[in-house]
Specification:
The complex is a heterodimer of chains A (about 150) and B (about 180). By secondary structure, chain A is an all-alpha fold. Chain A is about 70% helix and about 0% strand. The termini of chain A are far apart. Chain B has nine helices and no strands. Classes of the chains: A mainly alpha (about 150), B mainly alpha (about 180).
Chain lengths: ~150, ~180
């Protein structure tokens, strides 16, 4: 409490002359020596400012605003349409015949490793796929020299 | 500078039928004081012209929302001050490393400015003012150059009268010291 009282007393101890801050402007030496008019404007500048100029600016700003928002909206619609056409009903566009046609035209390439992965050995029964008659026909048609192969082995 | 019967005038500005002629009156009365207020902040004439037009656009668009809690002219000065400071901020961001660098460049450019009539000492004074912190600079320009009342400046800048007086006192002291130094050389 005592400290607060002390501070109050000290604060009241400082005084300034009445109207000091208001008068500081008038007897200020800079103002007397330097003046305040340093800037000028082009001739008839203030006459050229009229309400039409301001209204034109408002109109231009509005057009700019509409244009900007129109382009933004158009871009958003375009992206939306692009997304929908690329992602919706994709499965209906490709049917089985197309896939077979694609494969038949040799446009589908499988490497040896791809094929081996596709036909995992434990899932295939070779005896069902190749019978003895087919094998014999294959040897006859290709003039397979069994002797040669057997010798090499 | 204060229009007679301000509340009636504000109503005519808000009314669609009387808006155009009222705006013309407003423009006639305030284009010069607002221009000079802006010009002292942005320094260059073309920039001041640009900001002045933006200010009137904002006034015209915003008058319907003006509640009359402050005087019309302090409200307009507030818009002009904000527009000027925003203009400088954008320019500093776009073309300069810092706002100090920009203000130095703007003040130095005054030497070649055809619409700056001051001599060397006035140019130096402008440089000193330009390098003051924003609040000190604004209060100095409004009080010293435009003779505005502290109460009005307080409404425009949203700062207490006491704080403004202190800022003004500091600004005056700084300028005095620097001008004295220049004059002794």
């Amino acid at each position: 409490m005592g400290i607060k009282k002390d501070i109050l007393i000290k604060r009241k101890g400082f005084k300034i002359p009445e109207g000091y801050f208001e008068s500081i402007n008038n007897d200020f030496f800079i103002k007397k020596e330097l003046g305040v008019k340093r800037f000028s404007v082009p001739t008839n500048y203030f006459n050229s400012i009229d309400k039409q100029q301001v209204f034109n600016r408002i109109y231009t700003d509005n057009v700019k605003y509409i244009k900007t928002n129109f382009y933004r909206a158009a871009a958003a619609v375009f992206i939306g349409v692009l997304f929908l056409t690329n992602n919706l009903d994709k499965s209906n566009n490709v049917n089985l015949e197309d896939i077979i046609e694609y494969a038949n035209q040799d446009m589908l390439y499988f490497s040896n490793s791809d094929l081996s992965e596709l036909f995992a050995s434990n899932k295939l029964n070779y005896t069902v796929l190749i019978n003895d008659d087919d094998l014999a026909r294959y040897f006859i048609e290709t003039n397979f020299n069994t002797q040669e192969y057997l010798l090499q082995e | 500078m204060i229009l007679e019967n301000e509340s009636n005038f504000i109503e005519s500005l808000k009314n669609k039928k009387t808006q155009n002629s009222a705006f013309e009156t407003l423009l006639t009365n305030y284009k010069q004081p607002l221009y000079w207020h802006i010009r002292k902040i942005v320094l260059n004439h073309d920039a001041a012209d640009d900001v002045l037009q933006d200010t009137f656009v904002k006034i015209f668009k915003g008058i319907s929302k003006f509640k009359g809690e402050s005087k019309l002219y302090t409200w307009m000065y507030k818009i002009a001050t904000n527009e000027s400071l925003n203009f400088l901020k954008l320019r500093a961001k776009k073309y300069f490393q810092s706002s100090e660098e920009m203000m130095n460049t703007l003040a130095n450019n005054l030497k070649e400015d055809p619409y700056f009539d001051g001599d060397m000492v006035q140019l130096e004074l402008q440089k000193i003012i330009s390098n003051l912190p924003d609040k000190q600079k604004l209060v100095f320009q409004m009080k010293y150059e435009q003779n505005m009342k502290f109460n009005d400046i307080s409404e425009i800048l949203g700062t207490s009268v006491g704080a403004l007086k202190a800022s003004y006192h500091i600004a005056v002291k700084k300028i005095k010291e620097k001008i004295k130094k220049i004059q002794t050389f």
